[in-house]
Every structure is written in C-alpha cells, then in structure tokens.
C-alpha cells in the first residue's frame, strides 16, 4: 500500500474535500499543514509541482491540482462510481459545484466592504437557493433522492457537496435545505468514518 502525504495550509480550503475522501475510505494519510505564516511553505515551494498547494505525495510521486487529487483519491478508493455512467454523473455534480464555487470565491476575495456586502446578499438570497434547488433535482434522479447522488453508496459527489455547505455556511447564512438534500447532508455527516473524522476535527 502506498504512503500518502497531503500538503496544504492549516485551513480547510481546497484540501478539505480530499481529507474527507480519505476519511470516508478509511485510509490513513499524513496531513501536512503549513502554517499560514507562510515561511515554511516558502522554503518548500520550489520543490512542489506548479508551486502551489494542495499537493499529494504518493510514495515519491507528487500530484498537484486539487481537482486531480480528489479524483485520484476517489478512483483509488471506490468513491467515483462503479461504471462510466456513474463516473460521468459524479463529474456532472463536480462541475455543477465548481460553477457555484465561483460565487463563493468572489465573496472570499472581495476586499471592498460595500461590494462584499452585495455579493453576500446575492449569495444568500439567490445563488445558494438556486444551487440547492438544482442539487435537489439531481439527487431525486437517483433512488428518488433517498440515497446518494450516484449509485447506492457514498461518492466524491456527496462528499464535495457536504464540504461546500460546511465551508460556505461558515461565511454566509445558508437557506434551509430542500428535504432530500438535507437528508443527504445528514447521511454524509453520519457516515461512520466521516463522523469519526469530524469528531476529531472538532468543528
């Protein structure tokens, strides 16, 4: 079995969905977190592909790009669906999530307080309800919405949507979840291995 080392900063950010995927798989990994002071990271940066984090080390091989890493981990541990149709369904949900995340990132990086307030209001009143409604419809296409986004078991799609609601919820007021989506979020949180990880994470 390879040794896995995930390198990122000491925050959730783009690495948390990868940490959650490792947790769901029951796979141990070294969770290397560089202090946000950046000094240690600046010393290591020249040795990292594309000079950015997150980066996953698999034995001696380094994999950059958060999207590539999360898909690698999902494929490696059976979190990417059982056939091409299911793989594609996971990709559709990831793409839908990434479209939405552009709005969340715009809020995170906006420095002007007036513009930030406008973006936050639009996120809470328009973008989040639209996103949740879209996810509800996608979820209902599989087992009436009473299971997971893909097939009959948890996948990267479920983990990513849970992580987005968790992280965005720390920065903005979430609207009420539609019923099926709310049920899914609870199932992900209560997945035994994820529940154990979240208890250790402590928030």
TrEMBL record:
**Gene Ontology MF terms in the entry:** glutathione transferase activity; structural constituent of eye lens
> Which stretches make up the GST C-terminal domain?
83-203
Keywords, ordered alphabetically? Eye lens protein
- List the SUPFAM superfamilies hit by this protein, alphabetically: GST C-terminal domain-like (SSF47616), Thioredoxin-like (SSF52833)
GO biological process terms held by the UniProt record: glutathione metabolic process
Where would I find the GST N-terminal domain in this sequence? 2-81
Query: What family classification does the UniProt entry report for this protein?
Result: Belongs to the GST superfamily.
The molecule here is called S-crystallin SL11
The source organism is Magallana gigas
């Amino acid at each position: 079995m390879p040794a896995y080392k995930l390198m990122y900063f000491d925050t959730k950010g783009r690495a948390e969905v990868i940490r959650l995927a490792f947790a769901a798989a029951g796979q141990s990994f070294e969770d290397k977190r560089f202090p946000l002071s950046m000094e240690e990271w600046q010393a290591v940066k020249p040795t990292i592909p594309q000079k950015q984090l997150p980066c996953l080390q698999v034995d001696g091989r380094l994999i950059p790009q958060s999207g590539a890493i999360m898909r690698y981990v999902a494929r490696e541990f059976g979190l990417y669906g059982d056939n091409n149709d299911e793989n594609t369904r996971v990709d559709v949900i990831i793409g839908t999530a990434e479209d939405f995340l552009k709005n969340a990132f715009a809020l995170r990086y906006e420095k002007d307080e007036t513009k930030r307030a406008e973006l936050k209001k639009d996120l809470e009143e328009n973008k989040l309800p639209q996103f949740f409604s879209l996810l509800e419809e996608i979820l209902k296409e599989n087992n009436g919405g009473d299971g997971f986004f893909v097939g009959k078991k948890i996948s990267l799609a479920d983990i990513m949507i849970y992580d987005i609601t968790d992280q965005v919820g720390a920065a903005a007021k979430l609207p009420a979840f539609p019923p099926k989506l709310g049920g899914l979020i609870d199932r992900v949180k209560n997945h035994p291995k994820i529940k154990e990880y979240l208890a250790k994470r402590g928030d």
